[in-house]
Amino acid sequence: MSSNWEKLRKKLDSTKSGRIEKKTGKKENLKHKKQVSNGNERASQDGLQINDTRMKELKDFAREHDLSESQVFDAYGVDAGNLTRKTNLETLGKYIAMDCEMVGVADDMSVLARVSIVNYHGRVVYDTYVRPKERVTDWRTWVSGVKSFHMRDAPPFEKVQKEVADVLENRVLVGHAIQNDLKVLLLSHPRRLIRDTSRFSGFRKLAKGKTPSLKKLAQQVLGRDIQSAQHSSVQDAQATMDLYKHVKKEMDEPYFKRGFKG
């Protein structure tokens, strides 16, 4: 993976000189094109400008190497507004997994700061930071991975809530303690369309009847290490979906017995 990162860095660094090699072999000096217009360039964390070509390179790299866009964007200081917030609902499929990250506000309350959704195959279909209404008193970066600069271009809560509701509609929602995520989104979802890995009896046996942590389930069932440092809502959603797929028949069975076709 380190070699892939190095290749991308070299490719991106080659554009910083202000010259881009075109397919025709001609070079065009871009030093005079610093003015931002129509959203074609976006400010990065260190104040540099990232154009659409470089943005596409970052997104393509993330997709090709099964990385979340946020991981790649964070590495290059790209603002939150460039995460995946558009998805084709018609081709999305029946199953999705969701995970959220929260930050602290007054009275030790938690509010939504990021929400990530993946499809049945673990591909990211929605991922965005969320600008809280309240003043943040604790970013909880050590666990949430959320930093203040992520909010620079983050959409407001109401917009994200509406977009997530559209994605969830009529789909089987997979999550780990998913009610916490729905609660912070101020959304509800039909019980027959929820698959909560924290409540599955087979997984609870591994925790001796207690609520199993996602981290331990990923280690024991998937042989995967997650949450070793800051959490990634994308990785957590992917792990949750894989856990569900591991026991899909058993988790679905109670709903089929009740006549639901989840």
TrEMBL record:
Protein family membership: Belongs to the REXO4 family.
The organism's place on the tree of life at top rank: Eukaryota
GO term, biological process aspect, one: rRNA processing
InterPro entries associated with the record: REX4_DEDDh_dom, REXO1/3/4-like, Ribonucl_H, RNaseH-like_sf, RNaseH_sf
Annotated localization: Nucleus
Regions of compositional bias (Basic and acidic residues) in chain numbering: 11-28
Key words of the record: Exonuclease, Hydrolase, Nuclease, Nucleus, rRNA processing
Domain called Exonuclease: residue spans: 94-253
Protein name (database record): RNA exonuclease 4
Pfam families per record: RNase_T
GO cellular component: nucleus
Principal cellular location given in the protein's record: nucleus
Composition bias type Polar residues, residue spans: 36-49
Chain segments carrying region Disordered: 1-49
Tagged with keyword Cell membrane: no
CDD domains hit by this protein: REX4_like (cd06144)
UniProt lineage: Eukaryota, Fungi, Dikarya, Ascomycota, Taphrinomycotina
Function text: Exoribonuclease involved in ribosome biosynthesis. Involved in the processing of ITS1, the internal transcribed spacer localized between the 18S and 5.8S rRNAs.
Gene Ontology molecular function terms on file: 3'-5' exonuclease activity; nucleic acid binding
